[in-house]
Design the sequence.
């Protein structure tokens, strides 16, 4: 086989390998990561990416540093709504980064970088596998790589012109991708240092590069120095506020990029590649394998390289996968789509360490909508504050869920408060825009409603919904919308200040306005049960008359039995009866408790198998739920 | 095809596109419509913002608007006694005038009427001419800039506060400083000395850099080791009076405005710039009263402020007892700036007389009028739908409701222009949610004109913006100190040490926010 044939065969092999790799990458992202789940988790596990159609938003983003990249990232992040398209975006980005890396490595002297060029793409996969959305950072890295390639391709020999070009590109890059320009500077400096071995020149590039970032970032855009240098590398605002865990990862990504190249350049340097290359060029031999065999891919090393690639890929796929985050996103997805039966099923299967306050909240909500809150509430582990996620202090993801539950209950004003808190923290999140639109329709503030719905109508995915609501608003102020009518009928109208006991204050106010507000009733009773306030619970049992329960809900029966035993007072049940199937377990429970009077732990162990879904168990031991 | 041919074709296509763009722009910016026949409608057209029946400054930027009438074409002609009429044709109803032509038209017609004819073309029925809009161009100009704070509708959390300035002659907004430039900090309580954009005080707070006040003067910014609340400069520039307060927010179940605010404790203090010392006096730091919102009289001889008795025993309970009965009186105390001595405290106008809480006193620079907000109760007018603007005639002591300028919603955060003829204020009209800036003309007798919203170059700006504008202050030109300079001062470890020989009225309990965010 001639050298040319070898080279072609090598090229074909690499191309085929990359096609197979990225095809697998796409399928993995589409079917395992499922980008629509990431979309459902926006505002909860990752920051909602800002994007609105129209000139105003475009102008706003394009008038600030890194705005263009953020604009693109915002747009592409919304595409995740469609899983296949989201997978295409992620794979496309990974592929482009790989392509640039390949070029860059070849540009630096190697004919093939082997699995090395896949590293950034695999890191990207790792981030998505951990249910983060580093699209803005990924795009900025891609921009940097493109700029490096462009800069080196232009390859001006005159040092002054080369420096001028370097400054121009740093400025442009800072505008496009913010502090990612620091990576550009680092790469160019390393190239000058290790490839060209021009220590002085590389020092000049470093000083000029950093000074340029200062001039553009601090002097022109007025950024804080730290932000000017580190935006998109360490302290990107889109990720800073969601999870600090991501920062070291990003740091690693950037560091690895630099180290990989530094190491590579170093290798090139030590093998005196440059000298060899010149010789080859003189001889006119296109086959670089022969000249740089120690670091070139050859037929014999291909299987090893491919095996390494597979190994790294599988390792990253396995070890970076965050099932708890995926489950959280799925919980949010099912909650957002009101798939209550699927939601309870999903939550039932969650491991105990993935069952948090928000999940508990969603479980209770699903149980209510399935008509099983009073029956099965204590089948799930119950946490304090889970009912309405109030008070929510600084935990901003809860603001969305609490605003939703308040809205569903009918507490329009307090839902409005929570919505605004979320809006301030998260930005133009479509659901909150819609909710504020509805709230203002309910409060007969059409112009205000119109503002939020107009913004919603510029959302990439939910614009139709926004336009439909705007139409309804213009017709009759929203009176034709059933949700508006429902809320107008049940929202409190009597002026009163929200008390210090927020939940009780809200629920009682709702029941005062509409005694048949079943959700408010069940949540009030659940609130009393959770707080072990049995006297208040019993005092509100009369409200059962306002609804058509076939029987007293199971957990209520258990609480009534407990209360009767403890206080020796008769509870007025308005003709209802405690079912026998509740009395028998209660007797068993009481006997066991008496038997282990001195030892609470032993009592808990003895009762745990049969009574963990029983209110009495919760009352005595403070825990509940069948699952471990 | 050779490479050269490829380039030629490419540049030819580029030239065609450029011509099309140029032609399109030319066509839309000219007057393509000649209306010979039209039907007359007696009703005025519905336009947003409402720029009809108002008095406008001769130097204001274009009052762009959107016509909200069904139609397929819209034609507007604006004209006055002199100058070339402005003509705008639009297919969408967005009417945006040429800035240059608008300025020219207004500048040659001070004191005259500005007429705006509006024609709407409906499908199949031809053109309809609505009753024209008639505005008056005042003779007195408005200050060219206004500085204000922008926030989102806020409750407890704040991420996006910024101080902006607006070029009223050119409808252009620019940033003075934004909180995000120093770790999502909050910027507030800006105050300028005698409308001078070069001399200002600005409060900030932030988890990294703490809480302090910036003092900008002659292009330099210094950080003072003290945080001012509501601040007012003495006209001499030697003293700044400010309030300190312990403010709390609470919420209503059913009221249209969900939020409410109470100052559980407050007092006044003053800062002597030369001596770098903060002081107070028992007259305005009474433990049994809530003193706040100071303002100096234009001659500097009096400090005016508002004050209310503390109506609760428990200073920690929220909301406190009788919060809905708290009404502030307007007080004044004489001052000699040369000797730093205070005179006797007087009640200038009591809440008992007005039946309302008197808030945010602001003088006209000629000293003739004082503008205040009055509402049913509270120290914070913007959360009170009953809040209206009232003008006090300082010669007679009589006060009157600014009927033409007020609305059914909250009006507050007002201020006079340097020529005393214009006022700017925040208003929550039309629905009590978004606070926007409005202007009104005040004639020499104190009569106000119908208020109009701050114009924007984008005619539909307010239809998709939830930004809140408040604490506007007129300034005679742009603030030239860069954001970088403010940022540097905030981050700097150097601060002017201020001697504070008194205990503050707002001790901060562990875990408690000293100043909650408010509009």
Sequence:
């Amino acid at each position: 086989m001639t050298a040319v044939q070898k080279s072609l065969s090598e090229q074909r092999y690499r191309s085929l390998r990359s096609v197979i790799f990225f095809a697998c990458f796409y399928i993995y992202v589409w079917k395992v990561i499922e980008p629509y789940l990431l979309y459902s988790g926006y505002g909860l596990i990752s920051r909602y990416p800002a994007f609105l159609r129209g000139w105003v938003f475009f102008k706003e983003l394009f008038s600030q540093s890194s705005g263009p990249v953020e604009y693109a990232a915002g747009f592409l992040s919304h595409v995740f709504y469609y899983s296949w398209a989201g997978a295409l975006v992620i794979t496309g980005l990974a592929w482009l980064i790989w392509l640039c890396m390949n070029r860059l490595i070849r540009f630096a002297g190697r004919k093939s970088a082997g699995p090395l060029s896949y590293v950034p793409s695999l890191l990207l996969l790792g981030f998505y596998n951990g249910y983060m959305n580093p699209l803005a950072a990924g795009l900025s890295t891609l921009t940097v790589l493109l700029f490096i390639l462009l800069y080196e391709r232009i390859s001006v020999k005159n040092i002054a012109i080369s420096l001028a070009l370097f400054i121009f590109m740093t400025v442009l890059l800072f505008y496009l991708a913010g502090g990612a320009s620091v990576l550009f500077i680092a790469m160019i400096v390393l190239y000058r240092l290790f490839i060209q071995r021009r220590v002085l020149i590389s020092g000049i590039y470093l000083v000029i590069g950093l000074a340029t970032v200062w001039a553009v970032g601090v002097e022109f855009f007025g950024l804080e120095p730290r932000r000017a240098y580190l935006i998109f590398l360490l302290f990107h605002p889109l990720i800073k506020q969601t999870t600090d865990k991501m920062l070291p990862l990003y740091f690693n990504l950037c560091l690895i990029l630099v180290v990989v190249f530094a190491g590579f350049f170093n290798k090139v340097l030590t093998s005196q590649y440059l000298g060899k290359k010149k010789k080859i060029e003189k001889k006119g031999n296109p086959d670089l394998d022969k000249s740089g065999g120690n670091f070139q891919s050859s037929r014999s090393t291909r299987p090893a390289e491919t095996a390494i690639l597979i190994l790294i890929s599988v390792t990253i796929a396995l070890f970076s996968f965050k099932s708890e985050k995926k489950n959280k996103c799925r919980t949010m997805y099912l909650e957002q789509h009101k798939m209550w039966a699927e939601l309870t099923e999903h939550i039932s299967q969650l491991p105990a360490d993935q069952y948090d306050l928000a999940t508990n909240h969603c479980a209770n909500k699903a149980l209510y909508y399935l008509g099983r809150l009073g029956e099965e509430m204590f089948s799930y582990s119950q946490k304090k504050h889970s009912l309405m996620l109030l008070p929510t202090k600084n935990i901003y993801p809860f603001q969305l869920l609490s605003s939703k539950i308040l809205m569903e209950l009918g507490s329009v004003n307090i839902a409005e408060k929570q919505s605004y808190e979320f809006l301030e923290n998260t930005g133009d999140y479509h659901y909150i825009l819609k909710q504020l639109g509805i709230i203002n329709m309910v409060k007969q503030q059409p112009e205000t409603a119109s503002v939020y719905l107009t913004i919603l109508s510029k959302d990439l995915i939910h614009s139709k919904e926004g336009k439909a609501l705007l139409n309804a608003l213009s017709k009759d102020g929203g009176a034709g919308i059933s949700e508006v009518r429902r809320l107008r009928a049940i929202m409190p109208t009597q002026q009163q200040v929200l008390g210090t006991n927020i939940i009780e204050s809200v629920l009682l106010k709702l029941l005062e306005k509409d005694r048949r507000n079943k959700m408010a009733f069940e949540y009030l009773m659940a609130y009393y049960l959770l707080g072990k306030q049995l006297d208040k619970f019993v005092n509100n049992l009369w409200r059962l008359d306002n609804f058509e329960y076939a029987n007293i809900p199971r957990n209520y029966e258990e609480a009534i039995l407990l209360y009767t035993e403890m206080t020796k007072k008769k509870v007025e049940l308005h003709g209802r009866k405690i079912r026998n199937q509740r009395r028998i377990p209660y007797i068993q429970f009481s006997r066991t408790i008496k038997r282990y009077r001195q030892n609470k732990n032993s009592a808990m162990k003895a009762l745990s198998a049969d009574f963990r879904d029983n209110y009495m168990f919760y009352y005595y031991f403070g825990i509940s739920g069948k699952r471990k | 095809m050779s490479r050269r041919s490829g380039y030629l074709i490419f540049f030819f296509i580029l030239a065609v596109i450029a011509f099309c763009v140029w032609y399109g722009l030319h066509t839309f910016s000219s007057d393509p419509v000649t209306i010979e026949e039209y039907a007359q409608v007696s009703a005025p057209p519905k336009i947003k913002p409402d720029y009809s029946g108002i008095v406008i400054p001769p130097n204001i930027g274009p009052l762009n608007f959107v016509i909200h009438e069904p139609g397929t074409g819209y034609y507007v002609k604006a004209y006055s006694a002199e100058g070339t009429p402005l003509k705008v044709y639009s297919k969408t109803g967005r009417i945006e005038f040429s800035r240059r032509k608008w300025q020219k038209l207004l500048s040659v017609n001070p004191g005259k009427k500005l007429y705006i004819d509006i024609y709407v073309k409906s499908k199949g029925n031809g053109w309809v001419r609505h009753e024209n809009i008639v505005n008056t161009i005042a003779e007195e100009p408005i200050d060219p800039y206004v500085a204000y704070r922008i926030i989102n509708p806020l409750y407890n959390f704040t991420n996006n506060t910024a101080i902006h300035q607006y070029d009223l002659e050119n409808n252009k907004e620019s940033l003075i400083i934004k909180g995000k430039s120093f770790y999502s900090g909050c910027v507030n309580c800006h105050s300028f000395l005698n409308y001078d954009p070069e001399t200002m005080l600005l409060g900030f707070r932030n988890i990294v850099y703490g809480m302090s006040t910036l003092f900008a003067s002659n292009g330099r910014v210094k950080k003072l080791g003290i945080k001012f609340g509501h601040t007012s400069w003495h006209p001499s520039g030697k003293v700044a009076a400010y309030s300190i307060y312990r403010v709390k927010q609470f919420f209503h179940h059913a009221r249209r405005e969900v939020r409410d605010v109470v100052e559980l404790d407050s007092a006044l203090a003053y800062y002597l710039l030369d001596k770098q010392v903060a002081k107070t006096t028992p007259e305005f730091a009474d433990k049994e009263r809530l003193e706040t919102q100071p303002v100096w009289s234009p001659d500097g001889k009096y400090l005016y402020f508002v004050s209310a008795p503390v109506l609760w025993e428990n200073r920690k309970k929220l909301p406190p007892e009788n919060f809905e009965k708290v009404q502030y009186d307007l007080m004044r105390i004489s001052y000699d700036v040369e000797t730093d001595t205070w005179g006797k405290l007087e009640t200038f106008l009591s809440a008992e007389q007005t039946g309302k809480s008197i808030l945010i006193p602001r003088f006209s620079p000629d000293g003739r009028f004082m503008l205040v907000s009055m509402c049913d109760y509270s120290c914070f007018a913007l959360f009170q739908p009953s809040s209206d603007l009232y003008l006090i005639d300082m010669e007679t002591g009589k006060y009157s409701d600014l009927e033409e300028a007020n609305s059914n919603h909250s009006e507050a955060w007002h201020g006079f222009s340097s020529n005393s003829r214009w006022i700017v204020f925040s208003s929550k009209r039309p629905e009590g949610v978004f606070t926007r800036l409005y202007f009104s003309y005040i004639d020499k007798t104190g009569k106000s004109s119908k208020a109009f919203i701050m114009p924007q170059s984008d005619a539909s700006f307010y239809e998709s913006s939830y930004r809140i504008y408040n604490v506007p202050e007129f300034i005679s030109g742009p603030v030239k100190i860069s954001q970088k300079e403010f940022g540097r001062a905030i981050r700097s470890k150097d601060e002017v040490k201020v001697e504070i020989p008194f205990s503050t009225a707002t001790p901060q309990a562990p875990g408690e926010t000293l100043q909650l965010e408010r509009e």
User: Anything to note?
Assistant: The interface with chain A takes residues 152-160, 180-183, 250-256, 258-260, 318-319, 430-434, 458, 462-466, 482-484, 487, 491 of chain B (CB under 8 Å). Residues 505-519 of chain B have pLDDT under 50 and may be disordered. The radius of gyration of chain B is 26 Å.
